[in-house]
Description:
The protein is α/β, with parallel strands linked by helices. The chain contains 5 helices and 9 strands, in the order βββαβαβββαβαβα. It has a domain at 5-138 and 146-151: Aldolase class I (TIM Barrel, Alpha-Beta Barrel), CATH 3.20.20.70.
Amino acid sequence: MSRQYLVKEMFGPTLQGEGAHAGSPCVFLRFAACNLSCDWCDTDFAPDGATRCTADEIVKTLIELDRNRARMVVVTGGEPTLQWDAPLSEALHAAGFRIHMESNGTRALDGPVDWLTVSPKPQFHPASISLVGGLPVSELKVVIDDTVDETTLDGYTKRYRCAHYFVQPCMTAEYDRYLARTLALVHARPSWRLSLQLHKILGVP
Ligand code: SF4
């Protein structure tokens, strides 16, 4: 019997809102469940309302959603590495999708992707969970709240060698303060660029 994945939602066509591919048309595959519980998490990844799907069912739904045939799927969660594996990666590649994954960086990748965004949240890790070294990181995206400073960014730059480093203000009630802090960090560490959550600003789902 084929493996089933617990999928919270699939939707599109929409736009990738963040990072180096902001503005790119895509479809989204959101898995249920996460291994962290960040205070400011704004994503509903609870298993309630999630659906069990095989790889074939996921691919079929994403092809139907991808009406503009952009063939880029953003795989997220929750934490997508909890369920990601080689058979699903192969099925999506066979259908022509480029796979862009967004992970918190605390788990190894059990199947290939074409673009890996790591967005670490160590301030919310239990002692038993730490960041994984050696991941094939394409871009690093750090959400800025009061806990992140220049030293934090320097630590990540040393840990992860990649082409793109982004800082992104946390979109909570403290947004104005976090945005000012983010802009100050960009000027203090120019190898880091500003990422905004374009989809939220535009009201795109
Ligand atoms: S790692 Fe991401 S999805 Fe998981 S709780 Fe934190 S912000 Fe939410």
